[in-house]
């Protein structure tokens, strides 16, 4: 993966906020009727995390050595809102037996997607593919993963053949602010009351 990955740190606290976000243009008529135009084809996700304890040294091994440097280093690397990184949501990172397309005999590139309730949405960044099958037959080769979220077949799947995948994914995100507060509350220990970031559209 070419993008930096958000670190999984033992000192992360509860709770975690995950906000699906849309943008809708709404115009009201004098009669009370409305015209609503959706501006996003699918949701962007905003995350908010807290960190009860981060350590700047190796004195607190249960928090991970130099966990402060890991988190602050990512923030500095991204230059606040400017750069992007991959966030692997521990509760939402794997998809099994997902149909990602149906062959037509000529198309060889398909975009990974996942079903969530009654919605099918494109995933931001595929980190690993465990299995690809075409028309029920698992393929040992003949395909490649193209960053960030596409599979390319050496030969186009036959018309009408369902393409099914087991895969893991991450959200490509950016921080929401150009500054963030890292609080040193005792010797060698730090806390972050709120760290906000949101997914970006490729």
From TrEMBL:
Pfam families: DUF2460 (PF09343). Residues 10-201 form the DUF2460 domain. It comes from the Bacteria. This is DUF2460 domain-containing protein. It comes from Beijerinckia indica subsp. indica (strain ATCC 9039 / DSM 1715 / NCIMB 8712).
């Amino acid at each position: 993966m070419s993008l930096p990955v958000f670190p999984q740190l033992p000192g992360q606290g509860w709770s975690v906020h995950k906000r699906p976000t849309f943008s809708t243009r709404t115009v009201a008529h004098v009669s009370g009727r409305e015209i609503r135009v959706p501006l996003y084809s699918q949701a962007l996700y905003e995350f908010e995390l807290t960190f009860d304890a981060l350590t700047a040294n190796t004195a607190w091994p249960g928090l991970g050595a130099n966990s402060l440097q890991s988190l602050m280093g990512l923030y500095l690397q991204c230059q606040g809102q400017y750069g992007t990184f991959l966030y692997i949501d521990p509760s939402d990172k794997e998809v099994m037996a997902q149909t990602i397309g149906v062959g037509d005999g000529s198309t060889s590139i398909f975009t990974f997607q996942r079903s969530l309730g009654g919605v099918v949405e494109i995933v931001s960044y595929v980190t690993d593919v465990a299995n690809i099958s075409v028309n029920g037959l698992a393929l040992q080769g003949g395909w490649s993963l193209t960053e960030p979220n596409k599979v390319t077949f050496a030969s186009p799947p036959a018309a009408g053949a369902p393409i099914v995948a087991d895969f893991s994914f991450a959200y490509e995100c950016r921080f929401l602010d150009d500054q963030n507060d890292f609080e040193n509350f005792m010797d060698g220990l730090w806390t972050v009351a709120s760290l906000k970031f949101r997914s970006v559209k490729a």
